[in-house]
Amino acid sequence: PRGDILSMQCLFIKSCLLLSFFKNNEYVCVSICLQLISTGEPREQIFRMTGPGADQDPKGLFTIDMNSGAVSVSRSVDREATDSYQLEVSTTDYSGNLIEGPQVFRINVIDQNDNRPIFKEPRYTGEVLEGSPTGTTVMTMTAFDADDPNTDNAVLRYNIVKQSPDKPSPNMFYIDAERGDIVTVIAPTLLDRETLPTTTYELEIMAKDMAGSEVGLTGTTTATITITDKNDHAPEFTHPLFEAHVYEGSTGVVVNLTVDDRDDPATAAWRAMYSIISGDPTQSFEVQTNPDNNEGMLSVVKPLNYEASEFLSLLIKVENEDPLVPDVGYGPSSTATVHVRVEDINEGPVFFPDPLIVTRMENIPVGSFVASLNATDPDILEKQSIRYAVLQDPAGWLSVNPVRGTVNTSASLDRESPYVYDNKYTAVFIATDNGTPPATGTGTLIIHLEDYNDNAPYVLPSVARVCEDTYDVTVAVVGGWDKDLPPNAAPFKIELGTQPDLDKTWNVTRVNSTHSQIRLLRSLKKDNYQLPLLITDSGVPPLSNNTEVKVQVCICNKNRMHCSSAHSHRASFLVPLATLLPVKLSSFSLLCHSFFVPLVLCFSV
């Protein structure tokens, strides 16, 4: 009948089973039609396949027989690169007209164990504390396999191939075959860093796939395990007694204290700290740790005195920076005694007080007593004499009795001397004993000098100018100056000299305690005039000084002054004045009110 199946033709692939096998280094795939569809009438058809691996990259990996529909692989496939391919198959007639499809089907690449386990690092490092309990985890090893994780191809098992060194046991460590955890097997008492032949062990670790079967592929790496230190050994002095000798008056290291510590060097469990327990009430010593060798450097920080103590006994303790483990303590060997013998030296005399400060009047008679020096010899156990001498006397004013130490003047003391600063004169003396060898000491004498009225005052400025044919004008305002101190200086009395008839031409009136004004009473012709003045200070008794002020009478023309030569006067004393015109005295304004102010000229215009 027409509806019967007359022929069995594969018109359309409803599903496809891909049979894969490895032969001649190539995968071979064969498709099997699982369902055929009949159109009722046999027709010729062509199979076509599209998708990645067919007509798309990677092109031509899979091919289909256009007549039979058999699918084949043309070259090797790599599951680790692509684990499946999704393709589409359709049928057309010879003219290209679609008959059926397209139908999607997937080709899965079956994994083959072609990848070895790989460790990320060629060498791994770990640490374990000495004395750790058995079963302590040191580190975890992890390898990776690129094969299918859902198959035994990527199931790894770990194993320790070799331990180096193999003492005290070749099986000090164990690795969990599945997790890769390395743990300790050795007993805690044997895991002692100080007794082990080495503190570093190397393990060769192997990872094997196929769950560790004989046909599995392997990968290896190295694990380095360091046995770290804990402070289970107290430091101990190498000797119970140390001896030191030190000269009195000196400082610095006197002895090095040596210790043994079996813990790991350069760690806090090894580094030593020293302390002085007894024997140093004046805190004259200190102990510092030498970072290079852990020795204690005992130093004198305050000079010792032989006369006070010839012998000292110190008790010193050593500890670690880190505390000891609970079951270990510091024993008697962690303390030591240091005997220090102080050696006598000839010490120099010491002045007291230093400096010695006295007050004396300047200009006291030569040979006057100034001070009595006092120097003592610290070597009280020795009977030694002291002699004094002048070491520094800038002005050469002093002498000293070499035996008694009394200081007297050998020249007049002058407060106004350039060697005196802030009214103080400083001299230095030296004291020498008769020891072997002789020792010296120095002391300072400061003399506070009181002022004596020994300097006559003087007048500034010494030159003034005025226009000829003028009169009843202020020529200058002059000020008094004195090297002495009050009350031996201002107020000053400035007046005309004793020459006859001066008061007919000149007049001097007081402005304030330090200044006076000079007035010209009648006109004078062009010339240089010497005006004698007498200035007196306020000392007891007062001192006076006869001085002169040169008054230059000049021709004034268009605000310019033509004067006679005044080469004999220093430039700093030449005080040009403005042209002075006849004005009333009432118009004269003074601004000179301060005591010992710098030179100020007050004049009328």
TrEMBL record:
Gene3D superfamilies: Cadherins. Keywords: Calcium, Cell adhesion, Cell membrane, Cleavage on pair of basic residues, Cytoplasm, Glycoprotein, Membrane, Metal-binding, Repeat, Signal. Its main location: membrane. One of its GO terms (biological process) is cell-cell adhesion mediated by cadherin. One of its GO terms (molecular function) is cadherin binding. InterPro entries: Cadherin, Cadherin-like_dom, Cadherin-like_sf, Cadherin_CS. It is found in: Cell membrane; Cytoplasm. GO terms for cellular component: adherens junction; catenin complex; cytoplasm. It comes from the Eukaryota. Residues 1-18 form the signal peptide. Residues 47-119, 120-237, 254-351, 352-459, 482-578 form the Cadherin domain. This is Cadherin 13, H-cadherin (heart).
